[in-house]
Design a protein that fits this description.
Protein name (chain A): ATP-binding cassette domain-containing protein
InterPro entries (chain A): AAA+_ATPase, ABC_SmlMolc_Importer, ABC_transporter-like_ATP-bd, P-loop_NTPase
Number of strands of chain A: 9
Largest sheet of chain B: none
Helix content of chain A: 25-40%
CATH class of chain A: Alpha Beta
Keywords (chain A): ATP-binding, Nucleotide-binding, Transport
Number of helices of chain B: 25
Strand content of chain B: under 5%
Oligomer: heterodimer
Strand content of chain A: 15-25%
Largest sheet of chain A: 5 strands, parallel
Number of domains of chain A: 1
Largest interface: A-B, 33 and 25 residues
CATH architecture of chain A: 3-Layer(aba) Sandwich
CATH superfamily of chain A: P-loop containing nucleotide triphosphate hydrolases
CATH class of the largest domain in chain B: Mainly Alpha
Radius of gyration of chain A: 17 Å
CATH superfamily of the largest domain in chain B: MetI-like
Number of helices of chain A: 5
Number of domains of chain B: 2
Pfam families (chain A): ABC_tran
GO molecular function (chain A): ATP binding
CATH topology of chain A: Rossmann fold
Helix content of chain B: over 70%
Number of strands of chain B: 0
Structural class of chain B: mainly alpha
Distance between the termini of chain A: 28 Å
Order of helices and strands of chain A: EEEHEEEHHHEHEE
Chain lengths: ~220, ~525
Amino acid sequence: MTLELHDLCLTAPGAAAPLFAPLSLRIAPGEIACLTGPSGVGKSSLIAGVAGHLPRGFVLSGQVRLNGCDLLTLPPERRGVGVIFQQPLLFQHLSVADNLAFGLSPQVRGRAARRAAVAEALERAGLLDFGPRDPATLSGGQRARVALMRALLARPAALLLDEPFAALDPYLRAGIRDFVAKHLRAAGIPALLASHDAQDAAIARQSLAIAPFGTGR
Amino acid sequence: MIWLRALVAMLIGAPVLVGVGLTLAAAWGADWAAVLAQPGLWGGLRLTLVTGIGATVLSLALSVPFGLWIMGRPWAARWLAPMLAVPHAALAIGLAFLIAPSGWFGRALAQVLGWAVPPAWPLPGDPYGAALVLGLVLKELPFLLLMTLASASQVDVTGQMAVGRSLGYAPGRVWTRVIWPQLYPGLRLPVFIVLAYGLSVVDMALILGPSHPPTLAVQILRLYTAPEMRQAEASVLAIGLVAMTAALAGIWWLAERACTAFGLMALRRGRRGIARRWPGSVVMAAQGGLFATAIAVLALWSISGSWRFPDRWPEGLSLALWARGDWIAVALRSFWLGLASVSLALTLAVAVLEGEHRAGRPLRLGAIIVAPLLLPQIGFLQGLTTGFLWLGLPAGPLAVIWAEVLFVFPYVLLSLGGPWRALDPDQLRAAASLGAGPWRQLWRVRLPLLARPIAAAAAVGFAVSVAQYLAVLLPGAGRVATLTTEAVALASGADRRVAAVYGLAQAVLPLLAFALALAWPAYGRGGSGGRAP
């Protein structure tokens, strides 16, 4: 399972020139790659483009291949690409456990097996007794962990993280960062992390700085 | 703010309570045997249940996929407000002219199949109430869609859709499993309004529903207006309709819980679904097309000369009926009644919202405000008319205005409440720091800033007022003629052209109000300020 970006170029609505120079990247299974760059350079839009959620008007050119299969022609739900957004975006009307159950892959069959898988994920997130809780009662760090677990339970073939720590309190970031790195390696899938925080690059095997088009790399 | 609560309780709450109370009192001495022996009672009851529940369930069920469809299409959402503005009666008359054996559809088929006489289909007024359900759904679907959109503005739909799809769910699944359930709490009140309306609608049922037997609400009206005094029997049935509505609301609430439980079970199974090409555009075009054609056919009939059966178009056009001008006085009466009830309702709504603002907390008026919408109108309007008489308010325009305010006020308040509470408090604080007192803040800052939402709320209220049928007929003792009462009375008459004139005028009057509200200048921000409901 390898995620390959090849000559990826993103143009904002109405703009003549692309946001940044063509970008190529190869991420092996279990590896984390970090995209760094100033805010506004298009990191979030790039992540959205790879995941398939690009806002109307953006143009994405180039190729994205996952296990040799071209992603950009597929609808988002068929790409097998999980996304962690800046906000954890937990469903407020569901309990923590049901948020995880919603994410859990349909390949896990049977009510007992599914319940056990959710319980295990809660335990791994250090939230064993939090299943019945309302997500609104969780701390920011706890919500971030639930969001990661929910994404991983869907068994994605690759994971994209769009500034996942930006909304967290600074003192929480290091802990969550290690938590994410540990689980991503355990999952054995390629991960692409977009961040404007240089410290986030520390958990990545490779790091690529993107700069606005025309200013060089 | 105790006086404000007392005022709302007196103007809105008390009439409903007195209306139900006096209806109950009138039912007391009724001859039960006569009530139960009323011909067509059980058929009418079945019909009421089928059409009321059927229209509600169907409208809500359609609003779920359409809600998703319309979320990404703001141009389509813009057509909802005009559809909301068209009164039920006008739509019903237009629809009747389409589906009747000698209506446009019949003529089109006759052209193709070579019929010389109109077909013998029992439309409108089929014994199953299908035409009535169709009319109700055409009108209630836009309402529920607008409420869905309003509810969706409180939820990060785009973000949640992205999360769901990145977890592998087809868009429709994300919508039905996690997003729509979050919107439903905002839809509950509208659904109950639709349910109560569907169970007790009279004007649409007179035009599109069967007449032997008619729905319960129509039977009650017939008894109330019967020449021999049958008030007691009518009151028994009216109270029965109120009780039935309450019982059904309870059942609905239970069904809601069951659906939630089922939805949660399905969600926990985690099936992803497959993206289907849902023919949303086609079905939505059918809804919008049928609606627009119904109004267009009204316009055509109102200017048609002789129009024999299989002909698709009239032989000639003539403005003679419009030129006759008898509709002008009636339209003016509808206009003045609307203006009066909207002015009162708007004043009361501003008082309530400003009172809430100054008290710094909600006034807890909840049930009083929406009670008139949640009860069958025929369950309390006749009792209210009696109550007005006791107050020394004879049946006539004043009684009609008060009765209309009961229905106009909740819509005006709901429509103005959102923009009112969303106004940036810093604007008021800035005014206060410049030395403006509370009244100056209201007059010179808040009301001008909210000019457009106020205009929009007034347009909504005006449309509600123009559409009232029972609230004119009963408190007016049949002596106050509005476009609605005339159009409904003429709909079953021999001359379609006259009915079309009144039906079209009834549709156009509120549409003009909406157009005026849209054109209303926003304060300072070049037409982009404010938020239409």
